[in-house]
Design brief:
alpha+beta, 5-stranded mixed β-sheet, 29% strand, globular
Amino acid sequence: MKLDYQLSRLANQDLENIWEYSFQNWSKKQADKYVKQIIIQIKKVCSNPGLGKQISTIKPHHRMIKINSHLIVYTVEDEILKVVRIVHLTKDIQNKK
């Protein structure tokens, strides 16, 4: 069964920040492409939520999966894949809410 997904307010903000950073440092085309790649990865996880690595010691019931330079942090609740954050690999996810 394929799950629907939902981005948290913070995950939406993360995507906006990723787009803006990519736009400022590369181009609109690259920013659009990278955000699209992230969304495609989220949709893949919707088909198989177990793809991500469990991070229960950091966030109970959460998983994360890498896409290029970012980690998608998510949980599954009520048949919905809830994307909590999309953080850069250099960020400390233990302190992200």
